[in-house]
Specification:
Blueprint: H1 11-22, H2 25-37, H3 41-69, H4 73-80, H5 87-119, H6 129-137, H7 140-159, H8 162-189, H9 195-202, H10 213-225, H11 231-236, H12 245-274, H13 281-288, H14 292-302, H15 307-340, H16 345-365, H17 367-396, H18 399-406, H19 416-443
Bound molecules: 4-fluoro-L-phenylalanine.
């Protein structure tokens, strides 16, 4: 269709970019608080089920839509099914991306604030980390300035282009992130009393399970894998014809899940080891909610030698994880404006950056607005997007085209059994399961 459209240069670049999008604050900031809230190991089991049964098939489906159309998220539906309402699924995706950016950018700003506090040594010697975090939350101006800086940094990579900006940055940042996470996880496990955290993480305990665990885990899986809003459609549109979708989706999902679990292995042992009241730690974790990361982690570092160094490394890592995700979110909205409204890439980027800043300012001023954006996108918009994407690829698209994309025009020999499982999941399991989880979650 659009033969001259830019593509990523290498297979490794494809994995780095897609994993860069998937691995983000969702894994390190959102996953631990959701896990604490959802009963630890039980949440994780349901979560892994969602990754296997919804996540991987949907990611493959988004790749199919993206590469076969070589267009932005909304344009892709329009090209594959002209003159039908399917383009609204793409538009919903773009809107979802914009909404996620509106609160995600604020957390990115917190990350920079904490990076600064670590580098300058300010975090050292703080007595009460909880009020240190609250003082940031109560200072909108401070949050807004960091959020704006992060939005500009993201825009810089978008302006540098698909190969030089998105692919190159991910190829450098992702390995660094892994290395840092592993070092920190080893350090956290070595703390005295860490075992309580590991038990919480890996041993199912039905006492803390909530009825909404399925909806929460499904929302988290969609959010973490960056699926349900067409992010992987946009990235898939930059894949060349040799990329193996199934293998790529499995690799990205594995990396993403590993990072989430590693984040759990850092946070929970640290929280259990550092608490003064082991009996109430689970309640504390639940009450700490999303702030957990900015309270427990600095507290952990403060008990270690060279605390400023550890804290700086960690918040740098968090910023890396975050920026490869904000780049992917911003790319979805930017390339939509660029291709659908014939704006230059530069103008589109600036428009999106300005829009995101406006949402970000409101999110910084109002925690209810922040929460509405977070919950409506993860729990509602992404699963709804995922539902329609599965219906589109499973039932509406010509299955010959789907087969040709999955096998790279017949050149990859994938097991027929696998193909059958994929189609079966996409047609008969994913749509009804999303609807069922949705209804059950809303009634619970
Ligand atoms: N997957 C990212 C994370 O876990 O932080 C967030 C995200 C990026 C969600 C891109 C959706 C998306 F399209």
């Amino acid at each position: 269709m659009n033969a001259r459209r830019v593509t990523f240069a290498s297979k490794i670049g494809v994995i780095a970019a897609a994993a860069g999008s998937a691995v983000g604050l969702g894994n390190i900031w959102r996953f631990p608080s959701q896990t604490a809230d959802g009963g630890g190991a039980i949440f994780i089991l349901v979560y892994i089920g969602c990754i296997l049964f919804f996540g991987i098939p949907l990611m493959v489906s988004e790749f199919v839509i993206g590469r076969s159309s070589r267009a932005n998220t909304a344009g892709a539906f329009h090209k594959l099914s002209p003159g039908t309402p399917w383009k609204w699924v793409g538009r919903l995706g773009v809107l979802t991306g914009f909404i996620i950016l509106g609160f995600y950018m604020v957390v990115c700003g917190w990350t920079l604030d904490y990076l600064m506090q670590s580098v300058t040594g300010n975090l050292q010697g703080i007595e009460d980390f909880s009020s240190n975090f609250t003082s940031l939350l109560c200072n909108p101006l401070r949050q807004i300035l960091w959020m704006i800086l992060f939005a500009f940094l993201t825009a810089f990579f978008i302006l540098s282009g698909v190969k030089k900006g998105i692919e190159q940055s991910a190829k450098i940042m992702m390995p660094m992130l892994f290395l840092l996470l592993i070092i920190l996880a080893v350090r956290a496990i070595m703390l005295d009393g860490a075992s309580g955290g590991l038990t919480f993480l890996f041993k199912p305990n039905l006492d803390h399970v909530k009825p909404t665990v399925f909806l929460d885990a499904m929302g988290q899986a969609f959010f973490s894998l960056s699926i349900g809003m067409g992010c992987m459609i946009t990235y898939g549109s930059y894949f060349d014809n040799r990329i193996n979708f199934t293998r790529t989706a499995m690799q990205v999902a594995t990396l993403d899940t590993l990072v989430a679990i590693l984040a759990g292995i850092i946070i929970f042992p640290a929280a259990f080891a550092l608490t003064a009241n082991p009996a109430t730690i689970v309640d504390e974790l639940v009450a700490g909610g999303p702030g957990l990361l900015f309270i427990t982690i600095p507290e952990l570092f403060n008990q270690m030698h060279a605390s400023s160094l550890w804290a700086s490394l960690f918040f740098f890592l968090l910023a890396l994880a975050a920026i490869t995700s904000t780049i992917s979110l911003m790319e979805v909205v930017t390339v939509y404006l660029h291709e659908e409204y014939n704006l230059s890439r530069r103008k589109s980027t600036l428009l999106v950056t300005a829009g995101v800043m406006i949402l970000g300012v409101i999110s910084s001023l109002s925690s209810s607005f922040f929460n509405i954006l977070d919950i409506s996108s993860a729990k509602f918009m992404l699963p709804i997007g995922g539902l329609f994407i599965s219906l589109f690829v499973g039932w509406h698209l010509d299955q010959k085209l789907v087969y040709a994309e999955l096998t790279n025009q017949g050149t990859i020999k994938i097991a027929i059994g696998f193909l059958k499982i994929y189609t079966f999941l996409l047609r008969f399991i994913v749509p009804p399961a999303i609807v069922a989880i949705f209804i059950y979650g809303l009634m619970a």
